[in-house]
Amino acid sequence: MFIIYGGLFFSLFIRIFTIQATGEVNGHQLEARAAALYEKEAVLTADRGKILDRNGSVIAEDTLSYRLIAVVSPKATTKKDDPQHVVDLEKTAKVLSEHIAMEESDIYEILKEGVSKERWQVEFGSAGRSISHEVMNAIKKEDLPGIVFASDTNRYYPNGPFASHLIGFALKEEQKDGSFKTVGKMGLEYIYDKELQGENGSVHYESDLFGYLLPNSEKMVQPAKDGDDIYLTLDKTIQNFLEEAMTDVYKDYNPESMVAIVADPKTGEILAMSQRPTFDPDTRGGLDSWTNEVIESAIEPGSTMKTFTLATAIETGKWKPNAQYQSGSYTILDRTIRDHNQVGWGKISYLEGFQRSSNTAMANLLEDIGNETLIDYFKKFGFGKKTDIGLPNEASGTLLTNYPVNYVTTSYGQGSTATPIQLVQAMTAIANDGKMMQPYVIDKIVDSNTGKVIQEEKSKVKGEPISKETAKQVREVLASTVTAEAGTAKRFAIGGYEVAGKTGTAWIADTDGSGYLTGKNNYLYSFLGMAPADDPQLIVYVAVKRPKLKLTEAGSEPVAKVFTSVMENSLKYLNINPEDAVEVQTESMGNYVGNDAEKVQTALTNEGLTPIIIGEGGKITDQYPKEGLSIPKGSLIFLKTDGAITLPSFDNWSLRNVLVYKQMSGLRIEVAGEGFVTSQSVSPNTVIADDSPIVIQLKTPEEVYSAKEEKTEEGEDLPQD
């Protein structure tokens, strides 16, 4: 017995010694087996970066949603009278089909397969993801055993159809490992998918078989890195002006398509961009074409190109506005060019010819300019090559020079092609005293985790095709097309602002290549204009293709409805005073950085201004507006200092002032609505001590007035006896 037990003990000792020395049992590493049993890893999902407008208003962001899960394993239920798994597969499938986009039979098969394969739970693919709070509550009210929800994120576009072909959209896609990731599929969401993605984090920890953290084990956290935020040059308010005007015209005239752009000629920034048909990026409803027509489609622009023929003539000294020519027709070799009324207006001046948008005026003018000179200047204006706006698939357009007639037709905008963005880029030279600005849509890219600016775009002069004097003279002639009796652009006049621009009526090539379409409903009608004419602050281009016009309507009417609405509203929004406005008393802003905030506050108050201190007081570290700017009496002046911030009353503040305060203070302010502030979630004079959101509600004057009317009708605001 001693020998037997001694032998067993010796064998056990050898076995233990061998395991300790090698760390293996039957070829398996014990450390790896233990790690597999006890080490856990949880994924910390990164939020996709936001897309915002120039003022920080959200265009696209991740929002909280829910994922639908069905627990199908009977092991989940410990009490028979309180089932925690799906008991009735047929009933569950029927009820869920009423709330999610999946057929009842498909839901049933997923549940049935989960039961047969003894799974703990099942999910329902894309139909069971991105569930809204309202749908989740509706399903919960059905009281279905085994139906649970997990928090999820959904890409949300709060403005509906809003520069949709520029912004694009992103969707949740299932990955090879079964996980889901939001992926950009179109537009900026696709182009900047890498920057917006972010990097998931993780949590490593050791637990027992029941999932509890083991004593003395370390929990290692690798934080998620959220995606970068992309700020655009778009202005949400101006974009909304454009979307609303285009929607109204699209509904009234049912054109084949429409495009429009609003740009700042001083910087090249694109403030708004849209097209019709468009789509809702949340639902993809209406998505028939993935083409951004503003960038990717070259068109025969029509008479808007006469602007640049005129500029070439003036710059080269060939423009003689009072000289006369015979309008009506012009013959070159075997081709005859005609004016749009076919017979012309007799012998008229070149100035009147331009105002009447005469093709033969350009043809005669070309004889003095010269073919090669015209093409050389058109190239200086950026035609025939991409603008390099930074968006994919940009078209370059074509300057036709194969035959002598090509030069003539190019002078008035037929034959040769250009993109809408090229027209706007070229027009910046006219509006900006000869300096042509590079168009761009990305303002900056910001690391959402640190607030550090990673990439920032700057205004860039693309070239100087003409002189300041030429640009001024072109603007004067363009303004006369709106004001002169013979002008074709009289519909584009705006009360209080002088508009300068050129109409266009372009032929549309037949798809079978046989020639051009005929009839007044088969043209591309457009207008390329700016205002105020003496110092343009905005350029607006609108093109409407094949609108359904009434017998008495001209093709420029739908174009003018978009242009005048957008231009007038945008100028007023930007505080560009009308020419006939009453002169307002102003003050010149001084430099107050480094001065004592309380003393500056008193001085500014005495000057009729309203200073707002952001901080505890003391030395001023920043200010808005900057030094040298003229500001009207009563304006808000923001003075930044160090220290804790006491919240002011935002009552009746404009959206712009709220956004300035948000940027300078760094507070987490969430803005809802448009117009002027009506309420705030945190009371005035509260010292802000944490990062809790402060919600500012704004309403337009019309909304406020309507609310008062409703209350009056209900008797709530009537005086009491």
UniProtKB/TrEMBL annotation:
Residues 701-711 have a biased composition (Basic and acidic residues). It comes from the Bacteria. One of its GO terms (molecular function) is serine-type D-Ala-D-Ala carboxypeptidase activity. It catalyses: Preferential cleavage: (Ac)2-L-Lys-D-Ala-|-D-Ala. Also transpeptidation of peptidyl-alanyl moieties that are N-acyl substituents of D-alanine. SUPFAM superfamilies: beta-lactamase/transpeptidase-like, Penicillin binding protein dimerisation domain, Penicillin-binding protein 2x (pbp-2x), c-terminal domain. Residues 583-643 form the PASTA domain. Residues 701-721 are annotated as: Disordered. The lineage of its organism: Bacteria, Bacillati, Bacillota, Bacilli, Bacillales. Belongs to the transpeptidase family. CDD domains: PASTA_Pbp2x-like_1 (cd06576), PASTA_Pbp2x-like_2 (cd06575). This is serine-type D-Ala-D-Ala carboxypeptidase. Gene3D superfamilies: 2.20.70.70, 3.30.70.2110, DD-peptidase/beta-lactamase superfamily, Penicillin-binding protein 2a (Domain 2). Pathway: Cell wall biogenesis; peptidoglycan biosynthesis. It is found in: Membrane. Keywords: Membrane. InterPro entries: Beta-lactam/transpept (IPR050515), Beta-lactam/transpept-like (IPR012338), PASTA_dom (IPR005543), PBP_dimer (IPR005311), PBP_dimer_sf (IPR036138), PCN-bd_Tpept (IPR001460).
